[in-house]
Amino acid sequence: MNATAPIATLTPQHMRALARANQVRLARAELKRKVAVQEVNVAHVILDCPWEAHSMAVADLLMSQRRWGQTRCRRFLAQIPMSEKKTVGSMTERQRQTLAAMLASLERGRAWRPSPWARDSLTTA
What confidence score (pLDDT) does residue 98 get? Predict the structure, then answer.
Protein backbone atom coordinates (compact mmCIF):
# COMPACT_ATOMS: atom_id res chain seq x y z
CA MET A 1 0.00 0.00 0.00
CA ASN A 2 2.90 2.30 -0.64
CA ALA A 3 1.55 5.10 -2.89
CA THR A 4 4.53 6.50 -4.75
CA ALA A 5 4.56 8.07 -8.18
CA PRO A 6 6.75 6.49 -10.80
CA ILE A 7 10.09 8.22 -11.29
CA ALA A 8 9.49 8.69 -15.01
CA THR A 9 6.54 11.05 -14.44
CA LEU A 10 8.42 13.23 -11.93
CA THR A 11 11.54 13.80 -13.99
CA PRO A 12 10.09 16.04 -16.74
CA GLN A 13 8.30 18.27 -14.22
CA HIS A 14 11.41 18.41 -12.07
CA MET A 15 13.54 19.37 -15.06
CA ARG A 16 11.05 22.04 -16.14
CA ALA A 17 11.12 23.51 -12.63
CA LEU A 18 14.93 23.61 -12.66
CA ALA A 19 14.95 25.21 -16.11
CA ARG A 20 12.45 27.87 -14.98
CA ALA A 21 14.47 28.58 -11.81
CA ASN A 22 17.63 29.00 -13.88
CA GLN A 23 15.82 31.31 -16.29
CA VAL A 24 14.59 33.51 -13.43
CA ARG A 25 18.01 33.49 -11.75
CA LEU A 26 19.80 34.55 -14.94
CA ALA A 27 17.22 37.26 -15.72
CA ARG A 28 17.55 38.67 -12.19
CA ALA A 29 21.33 38.69 -12.44
CA GLU A 30 21.07 40.61 -15.71
CA LEU A 31 18.61 43.08 -14.17
CA LYS A 32 20.89 43.62 -11.17
CA ARG A 33 23.86 44.16 -13.49
CA LYS A 34 21.92 46.76 -15.48
CA VAL A 35 20.91 48.53 -12.26
CA ALA A 36 24.53 48.47 -11.01
CA VAL A 37 25.84 50.17 -14.17
CA GLN A 38 22.90 52.62 -14.09
CA GLU A 39 21.51 51.37 -17.37
CA VAL A 40 18.16 50.77 -15.67
CA ASN A 41 16.61 52.97 -13.00
CA VAL A 42 15.39 51.19 -9.84
CA ALA A 43 12.36 53.48 -9.61
CA HIS A 44 11.28 52.36 -13.09
CA VAL A 45 11.72 48.72 -12.12
CA ILE A 46 9.55 49.24 -9.04
CA LEU A 47 6.85 51.04 -11.00
CA ASP A 48 6.84 48.69 -14.01
CA CYS A 49 7.50 45.43 -12.10
CA PRO A 50 8.91 43.25 -14.91
CA TRP A 51 8.48 39.49 -14.58
CA GLU A 52 12.05 38.94 -13.39
CA ALA A 53 11.58 41.37 -10.47
CA HIS A 54 8.11 40.17 -9.50
CA SER A 55 9.29 37.76 -6.78
CA MET A 56 12.50 39.66 -5.95
CA ALA A 57 12.86 41.20 -2.50
CA VAL A 58 12.83 45.00 -2.44
CA ALA A 59 16.09 45.03 -0.48
CA ASP A 60 17.84 42.89 -3.12
CA LEU A 61 16.79 45.33 -5.80
CA LEU A 62 17.85 48.39 -3.81
CA MET A 63 21.19 46.87 -2.84
CA SER A 64 22.04 46.15 -6.45
CA GLN A 65 22.51 49.90 -6.90
CA ARG A 66 26.00 51.28 -6.66
CA ARG A 67 26.99 52.34 -3.11
CA TRP A 68 23.88 50.76 -1.55
CA GLY A 69 24.52 48.28 1.22
CA GLN A 70 22.37 46.62 3.81
CA THR A 71 22.53 49.53 6.26
CA ARG A 72 21.59 52.18 3.72
CA CYS A 73 18.78 50.01 2.41
CA ARG A 74 17.45 49.32 5.92
CA ARG A 75 17.49 53.03 6.83
CA PHE A 76 15.83 53.94 3.56
CA LEU A 77 13.02 51.43 4.00
CA ALA A 78 12.59 52.44 7.65
CA GLN A 79 11.29 55.82 6.44
CA ILE A 80 8.17 54.01 5.32
CA PRO A 81 7.05 50.91 7.17
CA MET A 82 8.17 48.33 4.63
CA SER A 83 9.94 45.06 5.24
CA GLU A 84 13.18 44.38 3.41
CA LYS A 85 11.83 40.98 2.47
CA LYS A 86 8.69 42.32 0.79
CA THR A 87 8.64 41.32 -2.85
CA VAL A 88 8.33 43.87 -5.61
CA GLY A 89 5.30 42.07 -7.03
CA SER A 90 3.40 42.15 -3.73
CA MET A 91 3.69 45.92 -3.28
CA THR A 92 0.54 48.01 -3.51
CA GLU A 93 0.31 50.82 -6.03
CA ARG A 94 0.65 53.39 -3.24
CA GLN A 95 3.81 51.71 -1.95
CA ARG A 96 5.25 51.65 -5.48
CA GLN A 97 4.52 55.34 -6.01
CA THR A 98 5.95 56.29 -2.61
CA LEU A 99 9.12 54.27 -3.06
CA ALA A 100 9.65 55.63 -6.58
CA ALA A 101 9.16 59.20 -5.33
CA MET A 102 11.67 58.61 -2.54
CA LEU A 103 14.23 57.25 -4.98
CA ALA A 104 13.66 60.12 -7.41
CA SER A 105 14.18 62.69 -4.65
CA LEU A 106 17.43 60.97 -3.66
CA GLU A 107 18.64 61.23 -7.25
CA ARG A 108 17.89 64.95 -7.19
CA GLY A 109 19.90 65.25 -3.98
CA ARG A 110 17.05 66.08 -1.62
CA ALA A 111 15.78 64.18 1.37
CA TRP A 112 12.33 62.76 0.86
CA ARG A 113 9.65 63.74 3.37
CA PRO A 114 6.02 62.66 3.08
CA SER A 115 3.43 65.37 3.24
CA PRO A 116 1.84 65.70 6.71
CA TRP A 117 -1.56 64.50 5.53
CA ALA A 118 -0.08 61.42 3.83
CA ARG A 119 1.93 60.09 6.81
CA ASP A 120 -0.99 58.29 8.42
CA SER A 121 -2.05 56.64 5.18
CA LEU A 122 1.48 55.33 4.52
CA THR A 123 1.70 53.50 7.82
CA THR A 124 -1.49 51.53 7.22
CA ALA A 125 -0.44 49.98 3.89
Answer: 94
